[in-house]
Each structure stands twice: as C-alpha cells, then as structure tokens.
Design a protein that fits this description.
The chain is an alpha/beta fold and 349 residues long. The protein folds into three domains: 157 residues, Spore Coat Polysaccharide Biosynthesis Protein SpsA, Chain A (Alpha-Beta Complex), CATH 3.90.550; 95 residues, Serine Threonine Protein Phosphatase 5, Tetratricopeptide repeat (Alpha Horseshoe); 80 residues, no CATH class. The chain contains 14 helices and eight strands. Helix 6 runs antiparallel to helix 7, helix 9 packs antiparallel against helix 10 and helix 10 runs parallel beside helix 13.
Length: 349
C-alpha cells in the first residue's frame, strides 16, 4: 500500500514544516503543489520530507476544487493507493493510531477526520483513483456519500489560527466568490450556506440570515439545512430578534430532529423571552439528543457541531430557568449536572 500526502502551498515558509512533519514518518510520498510561491517554502518542505518529496506546479486560478483535483490526479500518477490531504496550516494528530492498518481494512472511498475539539470533520483520506471530483471554487465539496465514508475514531487534526486581518481578507474574498457562484448555481444550497458563514464571520448578520434562509428553503441535505436554521437563529439573536430566532430553531428541527443544538438554543431563547417553563421543556429535549446522558453519539452527523450545546448547555438553561421559577432543588441538581457535563466534554475532546 502506497500513501501519498498532498499539500497545496503558496508563500507558506513559516508553517509548512510542521504540517509535513505530522505525516512524513508514515507516508511514502510528500507531494507538494506549488501554486506560485516566491519564498523558501519548497526548500523548507525538502528539509522535512527529504527523498520523499515530489513537487508539481499549478498556476493558481482562484479555484480550490481544481487545485485539489489536480493533487489527487498527481497522487494517482505517482502510484498512490491512498491520498491524505493536508494544508500547510493543518497538523494531523495520529497518537497511537495505526493509520496503515486503518487504511488496509477500509472499504470506504473517503475517511473523515475530526478537528481537535470534534466540532467538525474534514475529508482527509481518499482511496485512489477517486471516483468523485471536488467541486466549487471555495468551501469546495466532495460527494463522499457516492463512494462510502466514515470518520476515523482515533485521529484528529489541528488547524492554525490566523491573524484577524488575514481572516477578514479571507471572508471578504469568500463573500465575493460565493455570491457569484451561488448566483450561477441557485439550486445548490451548499454555496448559500457558506455565503451565510462568510457574512456571519464578517459581522454582516442581516446578509447572513438572508443566505441561510435561502439555503434552508431549498431543503437539500437535512443536516446542512438544519444547521443553516441554527446559524440564522444565532444571527437573529445577535440582532435582538429572539422570537424570529426561536422560529428558525423550530424550522430547523423540522428538517433534522436530531440536531440537539437547535433545542438547546430554543431553550436559551425562551429563557431570554421570560418563558421559563418552555425553556425547561426545550432544554430537556436537547438533553435527549445530546452527548451527556443522551443518545447524541448514536446520531450520524458529519457537519458542524456546537460541543457546549451538546454537553453542558441544556443544563445551563435548566439551572437558571428553574431558579427563576423558584424550584431551588431542581436548579441545584441542574447546576451539578452542568458541571459534570462540562468535565465530560473536556475528557471527550
């Protein structure tokens, strides 16, 4: 079995070494795709990968899907059986996992890996040659359901943070790109979802709500549609519109009843609106499908998660709502469970 790590790079001299260092010991080839670097990134990559390094060049066209497809094709040409995708600002954390053994017994075409907080997963390992192509200029999509997928249990990744100005430039670039791309593909909810994400990250809550609502209205993938409602509710709450936010939570649960974050947020909003009994009921619903004393681990999800909402969040709502209702014993019990759930989340992640 031959494993090829693929890494796109521009001017990433300061961070490429640690990225490659996280995979070089167990891959056969470190394939780097130079999209126009003018610094010492390639030299640093060679210092880490040594004879395992293979370079290819690709003119950058503002299209991440095209670049990732180029990388997968190049990995196939190099005789790879599996490709592992790793950006320069990412580090794989293998721990004691036997990656080769995992790949040897995999029947799926794609293996996901969760980030270190388990808030989201990314497509990470690809069986070659791939039967599916990446699509989309940014927040690119790979339809893993067509080749089968699962999430590796004992492998995670860490993503480096960026300076605020770098994030702002990225989000502004994504708004422009996704506004154009969603107009060209009006029936594809993915691009509207990430247009909403980009607006939200820039603090454009009104524009974000519009994009999320359009995404949810298309009723595509149920998990994505439900999370679009959740994000819209967050933005509406930030705009001081709790009732509208609550309505989005209810709409989201109609799309995917297993997204416990929606019930948690509904409970929080009801508490803000002074509806303490309703806050308690919503919190209890959130607990049922949460990760602490609930069945959240058994609900298949591969998209965004809000870990505090899945663990201690519902008990936080309960302790304050019960206290305001005058149920001191219930409030104390909820506070104890809130602390236990928070500790359990820390252990789990």
């Amino acid at each position: 079995m031959r494993i090829v790590a693929t890494t796109l790079f521009g001017n990433n001299e300061a961070i490429v070494a640690d990225a490659l260092r996280s995979v070089v010991d167990w891959v056969d080839v470190c394939l780097v795709i130079d999209t126009g670097a003018s610094d010492g990134t390639l030299a640093r990559a060679r210092e880490i990968a040594g004879t395992k390094l293979v370079e290819r060049t690709l003119a950058w066209t503002d299209d991440f899907a095209a670049a990732r497809n180029f990388a997968l094709d190049a990995a196939t040409e190099l005789g790879g059986d599996w490709a592992v995708t790793l950006d320069t600002d990412e580090r794989l954390v293998i721990g004691e996992a036997d990656v080769r053994a995992e790949l040897a017994r995999a029947t799926e075409g794609v293996l996901y890996v969760a980030n270190e907080t388990h808030a989201y997963v990314k497509e990470r390992f690809f069986k070659l040659p791939t039967q599916v192509r990446w699509r989309g200029p940014t927040h690119e999509a790979f339809e893993a359901y067509r080749v089968g997928f699962r999430t590796l249990a004992r492998v995670t990744f860490r993503e480096l943070s960026k300076p605020p100005e770098a994030y702002r430039r990225k989000f502004e670039r994504d708004v422009a790109t996704l506004a154009r791309h969603s107009a060209e593909h009006p029936d594809d909810p993915r691009w509207l979802f990430y247009l909403g994400e980009s607006h939200r990250n820039l603090g454009h809550n009104e524009e974000a709500v519009e994009a999320y609502d359009r995404c949810a209205a298309l009723r595509g993938w149920d998990e994505e549609s439900a999370i679009a409602c959740y994000r819209a509710a967050e933005c509406l709450a930030a705009l001081g519109r709790p009732q509208d936010a609550l309505d989005r939570c209810v709409a989201g649960l109609a799309r995917h009843a297993g997204v416990a974050e929606l019930a948690w947020l509904a409970g929080y909003l009801c508490y803000q609106l002074g509806r303490d009994a309703q806050a308690v009921y919503w919190a209890q619903l959130a607990i049922c499908h949460g990760r602490f004393r609930g069945d959240g681990d058994a609900i298949p999800r591969i998209g965004f998660r809000d870990p505090p909402a899945l663990w201690e969040g519902p008990y936080d709502v309960l302790r304050w709502a019960e206290q305001r209702r005058g149920n001191a014993a219930a409030a104390r019990d909820a506070e104890r469970l809130w602390a236990e759930a928070k500790e359990a989340r820390a252990r789990a992640t």
